[in-house]
Amino acid sequence: MDAKVRVRFAPSPTGGLHLGGVRTVLFNYLFAKHNNGEFILRIEDTDQTRFVPGAEQYIQDTLAWCGLVPDESPLHGGPYGPYRQSERKPLYQQYADQLIAQGNAYYAFDTPEDLDAKRKEVPNFQYSLAHRMEMKNALSLSKEAVAELLKNNTPHVIRIKVPDNEEVSLEDVIRGHVSFDTNMVDDKVLLKADGMPTYHLAVVVDDHLMKITHAFRGEEWLPSAPVHVLLWKYLFGLDKMPKWAHLPLILKPDGNGKLSKRDGERLGFPVFAMDWFDPNTNTKTIGFKERGFVPEAFVNLLAMLGWNDGTDKEIYTINELIAGFSLDRVHKGGAKFDYEKAKWFNGEWIKKMENEKLAALVQPYFDKEGIDVHDPAYLVKVIGLVKERCTLLPDFITQSSFYFKAPTQIDTASIAPKWDATKSAFFTELANEYSNKVANGINTLPATELETEFKALVTKQELKPGELMLPFRIMLVGGKFGPGVFEIVEAIELKDTIARIQHSLQLLS
Ligand code: GLU
To answer: So what's the pLDDT on residue 255?
Structure first.
């Protein structure tokens, strides 16, 4: 029987999570859950110079928001921990030593200054076949010299010795056969002078120790793949290597190339999953969450950026995605990001979602605006009335704040040109009728009844209902929007309606 599917998302905690990164998480998660496997979060933080406080927490919060919770992680623990590479430091040295002993790696003593000087001398310098013998390392120096340098604790790194004139290849699940000429691959550093592994050594050792069966990552990692394949071959055997899947990029909507944070800023849409505050630059980058996306829609739209089930179906729950996901339907080419389409997904999800659930998501937006929603049941009812008109969560503020408080701006300019004494008399009379009801203890009526009574009054005054509906709407909500006028009256009730009519009559007089 095949080994249990185990996949990992292995981010370096260096900043906000780009939507391409979240899509990598999602494809990992879907593949794991589809195959009853396990999904692991491993934090690849061996490059301490790139450490950014808060970035790991941000990753965990993003996964939690998306509902893509790992089975094993620094937070949840698990049998193959620790899940933070910096905490696994002592593990890696032995593998570097093994590679040295096998002749697949070598000590290099070049100082940063040596390397800088070489880079200046040779354009596009690569530490590889062409130049390695010009450098200060165990291949170019005598055995005795190397022994002496090591004895004196001379700072050194360990580099992989990429073989000359070979072809290294891998069978990528998405891209098929991919091969590399080793003469073009540089002797990457595996272990740094401080004993920390680099990403290249750590990723291979940890994928092995954590029994990873499939490794999904962005296409930008493909150039590193030959180094990883070689390390697998030298350390654990190619038959043990996970299956690789390099996921296509998410492309900018205009032009070519990977969608970047800067494209988002330029075109006015988020690229990160959630707001990211960078403590190093003191800058905030807006996220999908804070723009008012619901996680179900965010996950759904990411799934469709690079995958489909072969039908026209576009709206999927996470369970439907799990059931339907297969790698052979992941596209080879990059997917262009379309923000309008992303918003469409959100609108569809808002329509689909239970009103109670939406109320909980929308409440903080009302709190932030200082709008008192009275009682929770009323908020739930209002949400049901306006959700068809909302695409992003903050739209609930514009679409429904008039249910909770009288509008501050009344678009009288849209009423004034056709306003006259008969209309003024009509609304005065309407307010009187409502006042009589209130005096009799009736504060609201069903929308249909309100409509019938309104029409009766229109007929009595020999007017046309069509000319009165728009002014009435504007009096109640402030502008030309919102659901049915009488549904609004029913919800805000008569006392409030009277006050709004009277306020507008004053403005128009
Ligand atoms: N640490 C790499 C990153 O930051 C992971 C690449 C991989 O998954 O192998 O994305």
So the answer is: 77
Q: What is the DSSP string of 455-489?
A: HHHHHHTT--HHHHHHHHHHHHHSSS-SS-HHHHH
178: which strand partners? Answer: 170
**Residue 259 tokens, joined:** 């969608």
Query: Can you tell me which atom of ligand 1 is nearest the CA of 14?
Result: 4
Q: Is 221 in the pocket of ligand 1 (CB under 6 A)?
A: yes
Residue 217 backbone phi and psi in degrees, to 5: -155, 170
Q: Where in the chain is the domain with CATH 3.40.50.620?
A: 6-73+249-340
Distance of CA 10 from the midpoint of ligand 1 (Å):
5
Q: Is 261 a catalytic residue?
A: yes
- What is the 78 CA–ligand 1 centroid distance (Å)? 20
**Using CA atoms, how far apart are residues 433 and 411, in angstroms rounded to an integer?**
25
In CATH, 354-401 is 2.40.260.10: no
pLDDT tens digits, 131-180: 999 999 999 999 999 999 999 999 999 999 999 999 999 999 999 999 99
Rounded Cα gap, residues 467 and 137, in angstroms: 89
Q: Is 11 in the pocket of ligand 1 (CB under 6 A)?
A: yes
CATH number 3.90.800.10 is the correct assignment for the domain at 86-247: yes
Catalytic residue among 233, 261, 437, 495: 261
CATH 1.10.8.70 in the chain, residue ranges: 354-401
Q: How confident is the model over 308-341, as pLDDT tens digits?
A: 988 999 999 999 999 999 999 999 888 999 999 9
Q: What is the pLDDT of residues 93-145, one digit of tens each?
A: 999 999 999 999 999 999 999 999 999 999 999 999 999 999 999 999 999 99
| Whether the predicted pLDDT of 1 surpasses 60 | no
Q: What CATH number is given for 412-508 in this structure?
A: 1.10.10.350
Q: Is 0.90 surpassed by the pTM of this model?
A: yes
Note the Cα 509 to chain centre separation in Å: 52
Indicate the fold that domain 6-73+249-340 takes in CATH. Answer: Rossmann fold (3.40.50)
CA 429 to chain centre: 54
Three-class HEC string of 120-166: HHCCCCCCCCCCHHHCCECCCCCHHHHHHHHHCCCCCEEEECCCCCC
Q: 217: Cβ below 6 Å to ligand 1?
A: yes
The position carrying tokens 């934090």 is 43
| Ligand 1 atom at shortest distance from the alpha carbon of 217 | 8
pLDDT at 2: 64
Q: Which tens digits make up the pLDDT trace of 241-261? A: 999 999 999 999 987 899 999
